[in-house]
Amino acid sequence: MKAVVCIKPGLLQNSEKDKPSPKQGEVLVKIKSIGICGTDIHAYGGSQPFFEYPRVLGHELSGVVEASGEGVSIANGSSVYIIPYMSCGQCIACRNEKPNCCTDIAVLGVHRDGGMCEYVCVPESAVVKTDGLSFNEMAVIECLAIGAHAVRRAQITEKDTVLIQGAGPIGLGALQFAQGAGAKVIVSEVFEQKRQFCKEQYKVHGTVDALGDVNAQLSELTQGEFPTVIIDCTGNVKAMESAVNNLAHGGKIVFVSVVKAALSFDDPEFHKRETTLLGSRNATLEDFEHVVSSLKNGKVRIEPFVTHKAKFSELIPAFKEWVKPETGVIKAVVELD
After folding, report:
1. Domain spans of the chain?
2. pLDDT at 39 over 90
3. Which numeric CATH code is attached to 2-140+302-335?
4. Is-above-0.85 flag for pTM?
5. How many CB atoms lie within 10 A of CB 180?
6. Domain 147-279: what homologous superfamily?
7. How far, rounded to the nearest angstrom, does the alpha carbon of residue 121 sit from its chain's CA centroid?
8. Most buried pick, 42, 48, 124, 278, via CB within 10 A?
């Protein structure tokens, strides 16, 4: 089968690999759509932690079950999306119903080869049959689930004013789920094009120029009270560290971003707010199900932010363009026949 391998930072290469065969309890999925994620871009750029090269990238995946191993009940021909987190089921996190932060987690495209290929074998528990959604919609379920998980971690309600830092795909997912919870949403973003996009497509309460005086802009937008929740989706150290000073008293910060860096903040500012600091890693089945329901009932829309598409044969040259900010990519999807 055909595959695309990230050999080292900055180098993607076409490759031929053996088509896998499903073992007991596994299914063989013919990949139909691949969502390009920030994780893929960071791996390509050499800034992704928990990562070794060479690696077949790709963990936002949908497809069709083509074959099954022994003991599998899902029917061949089923349209599915893939939950790309392989947890051990034994560790303290798994026993406490947090498989998203399993101590021995293996994420497709990160810890083991992913889905930038024609076929992939995964446990039956990792595929979810879903009718009524396109393959492209199913391919971005995982991305949206990360935003949904961050909103659920923060327990956002209609009383909250939420600042989303970064208007990439995960930020746009968190934006929509925060709005769905009834919150006012403000978006902080470097690029004017993306700020305008959030105003036009998602009718946010306000936007902030991340290159300007963020604190002053937030003060004006909130009448000096500041956001009660800040969700960082930037992966930018300065943006993450600034959250403490831009938060309402009694507020919460959620770090969805992962950076290969140490973070620091002013403890008196942190302490006087009685700040709650939360990490948000991956997502759970509950989040995936919430995303599917929200897509089907129209409460979440992907059409506005899937801005670029390519065929699998075009993946490498397209990917090299998509990583450039000037191309205006918000979300890219690769389609397979």
Report:
1. 2-140+302-335, 147-279
2. no
3. 3.90.180.10
4. yes
5. 15
6. NAD(P)-binding Rossmann-like Domain (3.40.50.720)
7. 22
8. 48
